[in-house]
Amino acid sequence: MIDLYYWPTPNGHKITLFLEEAALDYELRPIDIGKGAQFAPEFLAISPNNKIPAIVDHAPADGEAPISVFESGAILLYLANKTRQFLPVDVREHTRVNEWLFWQVGGLGPMTGQYGHFNVYAPEAVPYAIERYTREVQRLLGVLDKQLNGRAFITGEDYTIADMACYPWINPYIKAPLDLEPFANLRRWHAAIAARPATVRAYAHAATVNPQAGKPLSEEERRILFGQGAPR
User: Fold this and answer.
1) Are 224 and 34 in contact (CB under 8 A)?
2) CB atoms within 10 A of CB 3
3) Sign of CA dihedral 49, 134, 207, 214
4) pLDDT at 183 over 60
5) What is the pTM of this model?
6) Angstrom distance (rounded) from CA 69 to CA 56
7) Cβ atoms within 10 Å of 74's Cβ, excluding its own
């Protein structure tokens, strides 16, 4: 029913988390971003920003032609609306989930990504950037920890797309671990999601799709991944 254009990155994991939780039929379409597959014309036709993830739904609710969706937040919203799962109907609860979904899309993800870039991938250390993004990520983790105080999940007792969006961005860089010790609520929440069977299934795709994960990047992979364009 759904084609998922995917690579095992935090944003890619967001969508496998949803698809596994909702028990939807889907097929992985690996996009090797280290080799420049994101610049292929057929992928750009559905994801013009040349980023994963993207989906094509071959059975949209209107019964018409397939629908393609790019951007992870938009995909989560599309799937939640399609299935009527993991997004409350009540207007106030619905609004809270949207707030935290966009908090992740606009803050937690980009800031943690920059933290990872300057701590793991940058060709030389830039102390100002390392300090700047470390401080900001720690601040954001504190915001999330406070929100989780007294709540099982980010917006209450129910697991939602806000949780699916945030979970993959908590400490995603093995070579640059974050200090989570001050954030007891966050650690409890993160462990609970990690233990869900759907989470285990979602993350199992990583080793199959990219057995080279964790190995040093080649110069060509660095050039492609960090804004220099398609393979030569």
Assistant:
1) yes
2) 17
3) positive
4) yes
5) 0.95
6) 6
7) 13
**Rounded distance, CA 45 to CA 177, Å?**
36
Nearest of 40, 34, 6 to residue 218 by alpha carbon: 34
pLDDT per position as a tens digit, 122-160 = 999 999 999 999 999 999 999 999 999 999 999 999 999
* CA distance to 47, 121, 231, per residue, from 226 (Å): 18, 9, 12
- For residue 28, the SS3 value is strand
Q: Tell me the two tokens of residue 79.
A: 């799937």
The rounded Cα 83 to chain-centroid distance in angstroms is 20
Cβ count near 55 (within 10 Å): 26
Average pLDDT over residues 42-71: 97
Cis peptide before 197 (omega within 30 of 0): no
Query: Is residue 68 helix, strand or coil?
Result: strand
Q: What is the pLDDT of residue 89?
A: 97
Side-chain-facing half-sphere of 172: CA atoms under 13 Å: 26
What does the block give as tokens for 223?
């050039």
Q: By the 8 A CB rule, do 22 and 14 touch? A: no
